Amino acid sequence: METKAKVLEIAQAVSRAGGRAMLVGGCVRDSLLGIPVKDYDLEIYALDSARLLAALEKVCEVDAVGMSFGVLKVKHFDIDIALPRLDSKTGRGHRGFVVEVDPHLDFSLASSRRDFTVNAIMQDALTGEIIDPWNGQKDLQNRILRHVSAAFAEDPLRVLRGMQFISRFDLTPDAETVSLCAGLSQNELVSERIAGEWEKLLLKGNFISKALNFLRDCRWVRFYPELSAIDGCPQNPVWHPEGDVWNHTLKTVDAAAKLRRNCEADDLVLMLAALCHDFGKPECTVIGSDGRITSKGHDSLTAPAEKFITSIWKRRDLPERVIPLIARHMHPWQLAEENSSDKAYRKLALYVKRLDLLADLARSDVEGIDMSDDERRIRLGKIDIFRGRCEKLAIADKVPRPLIRGRHLLKKGLTPGVGFKVLLDRCFDAQIAGEFATLEAGLEFLDKLLCEK
C-alpha cells in the first residue's frame, strides 16, 4: 500500500472513533507548492491517547515510544502521528521543554507552537478542507518566511530551519522575523542538529545565496567566523568584477547547486568545497602600494575551511574529501591552459581522488565570476578540456591503481623486505609517468629494473 493510501485509511479509522485527522507541517506546504510529498505528519483531534491507539491498532502498527509526548510513528510507512500539544520552555537545549498534550485544543492555539506560518497550515485528511489560522497560504503565495508567534524564540534551531527553507522554497524573510532571529544564539544547540540543517541547505537548496544573506542579515554569521571573514574581503576587480569574496562565494554555491547529482555523499562534498573554496583569501589578501589587490596562495591555505567544516560536522571523511578539492581548485584551468602531461593529471588524481568533482568545483568557480559571455565560454572550454583528459585517462572518478603488486615480485623469486617497497614505488612512478599502461608492459619494466640490479 502506498503511503498516501495508508494516511487515508488512518484518517477513516480516526473518524469512525469520533476524531479528526489533520495533515500538518511540511506535507501540506509541499502539496500547496506542487512538490511531491514523501512523508506525512498527522495531528489527531478529539481523541485521547487510549482511544487513538485503539483506533490505530485496527489499521496499522505503531511505535508508541513517544506517546508520553503525544507522538507516534507508523511502522513501515513515512507517517508520524501526534496529538495536539503545548510546549513550555523550562530549561536550556532542545530537551528543556514541558509538553502538555490536549486533544481538544483549538486549531489556532495548537498551531501557535509551530515555527513559520507556511508550516502552520492544516488540511483535513479526509475532506481536504484547509485550516489556516496564521495566513500561511498568503505568505506561501507571496514567498514570505514569517514566524508564527513569540514562542519561535524558544528554539534557536528555527533560525537554521529558516535558512534552509529560504533556499529550498525561494522565500524572503519578514523583517520582524529577521530581527527576532538576530536576538537568538546557537550556542546551546548540539552539533548534530546544526549539521542536519546545513545538510538540508546544501543538499536541497536552490537559492543558497539567499540563505547565506539571511544568516548575515540576522547576524548569525557571528557563529561562523570563517564565513564572516569573507564578507567585505576585497578582490581585484579586473578578475572579479562581481565584488568581494562574499559576493563571489554566493554566485559560486548557487552555480554548484545546479551541478548536484542526487548522490548525497558527493553532493555534500562539492557544495562544501564551493562554499569554502576561498576561505583562505582573507588571510592572504594584500593591497599593494599601487592599489592592486592580490591573494597569492589562498588556495593552499585550507585551515579556515577545515575549521569551518569540523565545527559543524564530527566526521573525518568530510575534510579528507573536501580539503584536497579546495587546495587544487585552480588546477583544472591551469592544466588545460598549459596542456600539461598525462603524468600531471595522474598525480593530481592521486591527491584529489575525484577529478570529476574538481572539474565541477572549477566550473562553479568560473560561473561565480561576472564576465563577458565570450570570456566565460573560453574559461568553461578549458574546464571541458580538463574533464575530457580525465575521462580519456579513466581517472575522472577514481585514482590510478598500481599494476605491479607484491605478488608479482614474489613470482620473480624476490624475498619480501625493504627492497620490495623501493621496487613497487619505482614501478608505480613509471606507470604514473606513462612509461607503461598494461600489466604486461609493467612486468617488462620490472624485468629491466631487476636486470639493472
Describe the structure.
It is a single chain. The protein has 453 residues and is an alpha+beta fold. Helices cover 50% and strands 10% of the residues. It has helices at 3-16, 26-32, 49-56, 107-111, 136-141, 157-169, 175-182, 191-204, 208-217, 225-230, 245-257, 264-276, 281-284, 303-312, 317-327, 331-337, 342-352, 355-367, 373-392, 406-411, 418-432, 439-452; strands spanning 20-24, 40-45, 62-63, 71-74, 79-82, 85-89, 97-101, 122-124, 130-131, 144-145, 172-173, 286-287, 293-294. A hairpin with a 4-residue loop joins β4 (71-74) and β5. α6 runs parallel beside α8, α6 packs antiparallel against α9 (208-217) and α14 runs antiparallel to α15 (317-327). The chain starts with a helix and ends with a helix.
DSSP strand tally: 13
- The radius of gyration is 28 Å
- Structural class, from helix and strand content? alpha+beta
Hey, roughly how much beta strand do the residues contain?
Answer: 5-15%
| Strands ordered across the widest β-sheet | 3-4-5-2-1-8-9
N→C terminal distance = 71 Å
- What is the residue-mean pLDDT, rounded to a whole number? 94
Note poorly predicted spans. Answer: none
Overall shape: it is globular
What's the helical proportion of residues? Answer: 40-55%
Largest sheet: 7 strands, mixed
Number of helices: 22
